[in-house]
């Protein structure tokens, strides 16, 4: 895994909001089912699952992206010596339709059993996430690419967890963020499309930043963006864990 230093913090190069990844569950019930997921045809996680087909616990095609549990991964966080901020189940949408409740509960229990670390969940289905109880060391985020996705922000606000974050990566439309959209959100991450690289117009990004600033929401502008000046804000608890303080020792 490649790392970069952002604002003095060593983080994953691809996911600048974490410093490790773990996939105890892979797959997604949204795959191939528009309109649940508007970008399923270019789903990065599905492509990776296809590369691993029939190996490392991934089913063979056509089931390679079927919700799948990987028992051996649940014990891994116990062996992390340093506190970690973990991008959890990025090779899945853990809250997608078709994902068994049992799998979701197992992953949440893993977070509860490992209070030294922070577990980050990113989903396009925050409404389903709101039906589960998360511990304080779990953050839940949602992806917003288009105007229609803005409803996910309001669904995310119903999730009770340690923190809520929005990933605006990539921004496909002018979202016209305004009003109270980002109230009660704890972190905003903004990034550009990669492969091929497409940077959003500056005013689209400015709108999001203005909306975040209105509620003092920290903003992380990822290194893949051409926006200047960058903002490298990390929420205090995330920063402290990335710097090496166990989450359960933060008062
Ligand atoms: S993992 Fe995400 S991008 Fe891929 S099909 Fe599921 S919801 Fe869509």
Topology, pairings included?
Layout: E1 3-6, E2 9-12, E3 20-22, E4 25-26, H1 44-51, E5 68-69, E6 85-88, H2 101-113, E7 118-123, H3 126-129, E8 138-143, H4 150-156, E9 163-168, E10 187-190, H5 202-214, E11 219-221, H6 236-243
Parallel strand pairs: 3-6, 6-7, 7-8, 8-9, 9-10, 10-11
Antiparallel strand pairs: 1-2, 4-5
In short:
The chain is 21% helix and 18% strand. With 251 residues, it is of the alpha/beta class. The chain has one domain (16-249).
Question: Can you tell me about this structure?
Answer:
This protein has one domain. The two termini are 31 Å apart. The radius of gyration is 17 Å and the shape is globular. By secondary structure, it is α/β, with parallel strands linked by helices. Strand 7 (118-123), helix 3 and strand 8 form a beta-alpha-beta unit. The chain is built from six helices and eleven strands. It has a seven-stranded parallel beta sheet with strand order 3-6-7-8-9-10-11. The protein has a two-stranded antiparallel sheet with strand order 1-2. The chain binds iron/sulfur cluster (SF4). Residues 28, 30-31, 37, 39-40, 43, 45-46, 93, 96, 124 line the site of iron/sulfur cluster.
Could you say which structural class the secondary elements and strand pairing correspond to?
A: alpha/beta
Q: List all distinct small molecules, including ions and cofactors, that are bound in this structure.
A: iron/sulfur cluster
Tell me the number of helical segments per DSSP (H or I, 4 or more residues long).
Answer: 6
Low-confidence stretches: none
Largest sheet: spatial strand order: 3-6-7-8-9-10-11
The 3D shape can be described as globular
The proportion of residues forming helix, as a percent range, comes to 10-25%
Order of helices and strands: EEEEHEEHEHEHEEHEH
Radius of gyration: 17 Å
Count of folded domains: 1
């Amino acid at each position: 895994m490649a790392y970069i230093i952002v604002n003095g913090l060593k983080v994953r190069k691809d996911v600048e909001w974490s410093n490790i990844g773990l996939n105890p569950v892979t797959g997604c019930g949204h795959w191939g089912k528009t309109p649940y997921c508007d970008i399923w045809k270019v789903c990065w996680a599905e492509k990776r699952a296809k590369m691993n087909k029939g190996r490392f616990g991934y089913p063979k095609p056509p089931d390679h992206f079927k919700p799948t549990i990987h028992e051996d991964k649940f014990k891994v966080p116990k062996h992390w010596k340093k506190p970690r901020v973990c991008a959890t189940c990025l090779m899945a949408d853990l809250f997608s339709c078709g994902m068994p409740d049992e799998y979701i509960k197992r992953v949440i229990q893993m977070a509860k059993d490992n209070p030294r670390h922070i577990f980050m969940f990113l989903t396009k289905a925050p409404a389903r996430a709101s039906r589960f109880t998360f511990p304080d060391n779990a953050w839940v985020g949602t992806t917003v690419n288009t105007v229609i996705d803005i409803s996910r922000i309001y669904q995310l606000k119903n999730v009770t967890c340690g923190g809520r974050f929005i990933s605006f990566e990539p921004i496909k439309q002018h979202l016209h963020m305004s009003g109270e959209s980002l109230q009660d959100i704890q972190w905003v991450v903004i990034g550009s499309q990669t492969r091929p690289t497409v940077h959003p117009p500056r005013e689209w990004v400015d709108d999001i930043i203005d909306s975040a600033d209105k509620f003092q929401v920290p903003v992380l502008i990822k290194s893949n963006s051409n926006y200047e000046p960058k903002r490298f804000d990390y929420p205090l608890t995330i920063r402290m864990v990335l710097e090496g303080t166990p989450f359960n020792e933060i008062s």
